[in-house]
Write a structure and sequence with these properties.
By secondary structure, the protein is an alpha+beta fold. The chain has a single domain, classed as Glutaredoxin, CATH 3.40.30.10. It contains five helices and four strands; from the N terminus they run αβαβαββαα. The chain has a four-stranded mixed beta sheet with strand order 2-1-3-4, sandwiched between helices. Strand 1, helix 2 and strand 2 form a beta-alpha-beta unit. It is globular and about 35 Å long.
Amino acid sequence: MMDTQAKIKEIVTSHPVVLFMKGTAQFPQCGFSGNAINILKSSGVDKLHTVNVLEEPEIRQGIKEFANWPTIPQLYINGEFIGGSDIMTEMFQSGELQKLVKS
């Protein structure tokens, strides 16, 4: 069985845009995750890979350690940690997120 940190690294490096969230893109289970999905859709992300941390407790804890970031959702673009819902909102409002997802 793959170590949790190795599994997370595999996920974030295998997909251009990854969101670790509570729930699914179709049915977010918290307001912050719902906000993150709306921002990504509005930014033009069409190939979004989501991971429902509510279904995988080891990922839910492991992702907090992976990025040294205590909250979920967490966004990764091209293997790089971007931030949570607040940072995504700020980046969207400034236009920075849209540029990042297009590159």
